[in-house]
Structures are given as structure tokens and as C-alpha cells.
Amino acid sequence: MDVKAFGSVYGQTASLPYASGFAWAPASGRKNFPACRAIFIESKATTGKDYLSVELADAPRQISTAGNLEGNTIIPISCTALVSGSVQGVFVLY
């Protein structure tokens, strides 16, 4: 997947910095989008670990759930939907 940023198109590599994205909160409900490069989990004011359910880019219509997530974490995962979770919020990164 090529990444469009700053008026140019770049081939996706591990060293390419994240150029854009958007925020999502579980209260917003399911959010579908083109495959992302990573997600950033926001930290909460309270202690404890949370879960997040996503639809992976290579497994359409199959929901995968990750548990024991801590905030301020970048997860390099390609997904196409955020489904539900107990996290404070998520930034989808391209």
C-alpha cells in the first residue's frame, strides 16, 4: 500500500514516518476505514488494562480482540475497522 502525504506518494517501508490518521473513541461505535499501518492506544487517567476489538486487513468480517492493553502504546497492525473496546481512545495511523 502506498502512502500519500505532503503532496507526494511514498512506497510503504518500516522507516517511513506516520503521516496522517484520525482519532476514535469506543463510544462512537464501529468505524470502517482503508487499511492503516498502526494504531496508538491513549492512556487513561485510571489504572488497569483494557481490550480492543478490530477487523484485521487480511481477515475481512472476522473480529480479533486484544486484551491487557496499556496506554501510550503504538501497535503496528493493519486493520480496517475498530469495533469495540474499553480503551480511552485510539489514533489510527497511516
Layout of helices and strands:
Elements (H helix, E strand, L loop, with lengths): L1 E4 L2 E4 L9 E4 L6 E2 L5 E4 L8 E7 L6 E7 L3 E3 L3 E7 L4 E4 L1
Antiparallel strand pairs: 1-2, 3-10, 4-9, 5-8, 5-10, 6-7, 6-9
Please give a structural write-up.
This protein is an all-beta fold and 94 residues long. The protein is 0% helix and 49% strand. The protein has strands at residues 2-5, 8-11, 21-24, 31-32, 38-41, 50-56, 63-69, 73-75, 79-85, 90-93. A four-stranded antiparallel sheet has the order 3-10-5-8, with no helix packed on it. A four-stranded antiparallel sheet has the order 4-9-6-7, with no helix packed on it. A hairpin with a 6-residue loop joins strand 6 (50-56) and strand 7 (63-69). The mean pLDDT is 88.
Protein traits:
about 90 residues, mainly beta, 4-stranded antiparallel sheet, 10 strands, globular
- The share of residues in extended strands comes to over 45%
Query: Which strands sit side by side, in order, in the main sheet?
Result: 3-10-5-8
Mean pLDDT over the residues: 88
What form results from the Cα inertia axes? globular
The share of residues in helices is under 10%
- Strand segment count: 10
Q: What's the helix count?
A: 0
Give me the strand/helix succession.
EEEEEEEEEE
Ranges where pLDDT stays below 50 over 5 or more residues in a row are: none
Q: Largest beta sheet, briefly? A: 4 strands, antiparallel
Q: Structural class of the helices, strands and pairings?
A: mainly beta
Rounded to an integer in angstroms, the radius of gyration calculated over CA atoms is 13 Å
* Intertermini distance: 10 Å
